[in-house]
């Protein structure tokens, strides 16, 4: 499959990437940079990037699909991944947030999770940025990053958190995640099969083992596992 990456001769899909960005008012404007052309195969996109596959018409390479608001280098990495390519750890660490955005936008779930893990490993949380980071995690359903933020808050000095962190801009639904993090810290361990106390990595593994989707908030993961009818077993 990798040998067909960006193969113009066999491709049935063509992309023109770049050239337009969103202005501050939300209106499109032409960027100074020229577009970059990429070729792909719809069958591989359907399997690995379904949202991207839905955007194009296979077979009509004379009418390329325009992809805006993404760097060509990031789009190239995403396509390469869809063909079975491996993105280096250094690349993911340096561009983790851009890769999260692209993977989330085009439905490349495994790449999104890999990029999220790199972002979790490299992000430096402080009292000044914690609400911004956790709000971003919530908006993109980055359950692992959200858990990292809640662990940071629950393990910090409570009076210092109260003095230095403004919770006015934090989505109210995240209070439950904070309570779970505090409870987990107090008990030091979770009872086997207690979904509410499981780590995100455990929930994702359990969902994967049951053939369920692994992209989503911890609430979505728990609901999916419970709907599967075997939430109490590991």
TrEMBL record:
<feature type="domain" description="SAP">
    <location>
        <begin position="195"/>
        <end position="229"/>
    </location>
</feature>
<dbReference type="InterPro" id="IPR000210">
    <property type="entry name" value="BTB/POZ_dom"/>
</dbReference>
<protein>
    <recommendedName>
        <fullName>SAP domain-containing protein</fullName>
    </recommendedName>
</protein>
<dbReference type="InterPro" id="IPR011333">
    <property type="entry name" value="SKP1/BTB/POZ_sf"/>
</dbReference>
<dbReference type="InterPro" id="IPR003034">
    <property type="entry name" value="SAP_dom"/>
</dbReference>
<dbReference type="Pfam" id="PF00651">
    <property type="entry name" value="BTB"/>
</dbReference>
